[in-house]
Structure formats: structure tokens, C-alpha cells
Amino acid sequence: MRRFCPSLTELIAFESAARHGSFTRAAEELCVTQGAVSKQVKSLEATVGVELFLRVRQGLMLTDAGRGYLSQIKGGLDQIETASLDLLSHRGQGGLLTLTSMPTFGAKWLIPRLNAFLRLRPDIRMEFLPHHRGYDFSVPKLDAAVRYGEGLWPGARADYLGGREVVPVCKPQLIAGGERQPADLLRYPLLHHTTAPQGWHEWFERAGCASARSWEGSRFDQYSLLTEAAAAGFGLALIPRCLVEDELRDGKLEVAVNLPILASQGYYLCYPEQKANLPALQAFRAWLLTQVEADPLAA
């Protein structure tokens, strides 16, 4: 179905005249005659069937309808200008890559590595949207997302990045004694991630000491909060090893029992099928997978 849309020339003339409050100054900006701008605005008003300006002695005054219309189209005109200049400057290569990332993985794993990619590809600019937008690829602006899950999302491709190796961690000296067995951990408070409530149950089951106690304990919606809670001595937490390497190295946390397991969930780079051939996304994906291959913690 054909779109109902006034011509771009009419919209540009209207926006310029509204911004300057004058056909004459709009004509100077657009390098056309005053009559040409006035004609384009009249044509636009005829198309939409609404008067957009009041012609007063002092110049032009937007009607209420014109003011509302301007606020709605201005963002679109700005986006068209930005996209066109971006295409012109990069000639179809590089450009803007818009993505989202789960916050803790982004801060602990992706961002520390990202500068290497930007040095390699200075022609690519990156924009991070709020991470909850990563669940909606119907948003045209979104190119890719780092998601947490089992790697299957309708209408999207997914490349595994890491995070399935989870380890039980706690504040040093929280657990008394030397040699520890998995069952010993059941005597302490267990901390959970809200999106992986089965984590401790799976861990104790694989360790051969399943217990209903494994479902008990406080829950946190971010691994960053879970990490801080464990470091503060709230209890034991199951966390992807790639997210706590700094804390383990600095002695802020310790591995309670050296029995890592591979969880069913991890971090994935996801992108919609229709954007798979986007040059900036292809470059970012290829670089990201080399980082995963070189990372011994990307289990």
C-alpha cells in the first residue's frame, strides 16, 4: 500500500519557515525564492487539509495544528538528515551501530574490550540504548543486542559469547575451615539471580547433594548487585566466572568450592535476520567472535 506522505520539499519548507517565523528567511536558508517557499507551504496545507500558519503583520505564527505537526515531523527530518550524512561520509561502510547489552556483562566484559574494536574501526560509531530495548527487534533503530538466555529467540540469530561457566563465590572467610565439600554450602545463605532461579538447584544436583534448601534465599535482578551482596557477606552466590575475575583476583571474593558447572543460560549476541548483512554489524560480530575465541573464560 502506498504511504500517505507529503513531499520532502514541502516538509523542509514548512520546518524552515516555522523555525524562522518567516518565508523570507526560510528562502534565504534554502537558497530559493520567497515565493517558492510560500508555494510549498500552501501545497502542504492543501495536502493535509489544515491551516498550519497564521499570516500576521509581524510574520508567521504557527496554528495549534501547525505546532503539533512540527513537533511530530522534526525528529523524522533530523533522522533523515543524519542517516544521509552518515551514508555520504562512509559510502555504505562503517557508520552507526545501535545495540543494547545486559548491564553487568556490558560493564565487566564488553566495555573493557570495546576500545580495541573502535581503534580498529574508527569509521564505526556505537550507540547503546536502554537494555530493555534488546527484547524488541521491531524497533527499527536497534541493530543488535547482547542478551542472556538459552540462545533461542524468534526471528533472531544468536552467537554465543560466554557466561555459562558459573562458580559459587563468597566473601573470604565466610566459610570456616579448610577443605570444603559441596554439601557444606547448604549451611549458609544462598543468593540467587531472578532470571536464573534454578541455578543453585542445578549446581547441588550435579554435585550429588540435591536439597530443597537450594531454592531458598534472597534474589537480585542484576549480577552486579549479586556480586556486591556476596562480597558484603550476605551469603554465597552462583555467578558466571567471566563477571567476577577482577573480584577473585583482588581478593574481594573467593571460590567457595572449586566445582564449576555449565549452566543452560549464557550471553549471546543477537540480531534480526533482516540486519544480518549490515556492514557495521558484520564487522562488530566478526571482531567479537575473535575476542570470544581468545578468552579462556568464555566457556
UniProtKB/TrEMBL annotation:
Family annotation (Pfam families): HTH_1, LysR_substrate
PANTHER family per UniProt: GLYCINE CLEAVAGE SYSTEM TRANSCRIPTIONAL ACTIVATOR, HTH-TYPE TRANSCRIPTIONAL REGULATOR
GO biological process, one term: DNA-templated transcription
Protein name: Glycine cleavage system transcriptional activator
Family affiliation: Belongs to the LysR transcriptional regulatory family.
GO MF: DNA-binding transcription factor activity; sequence-specific DNA binding
Keywords: DNA-binding, Transcription, Transcription regulation
Organism: Orrella dioscoreae
Residues in coiled coil: none
Ranges for domain HTH lysR-type: 6-63
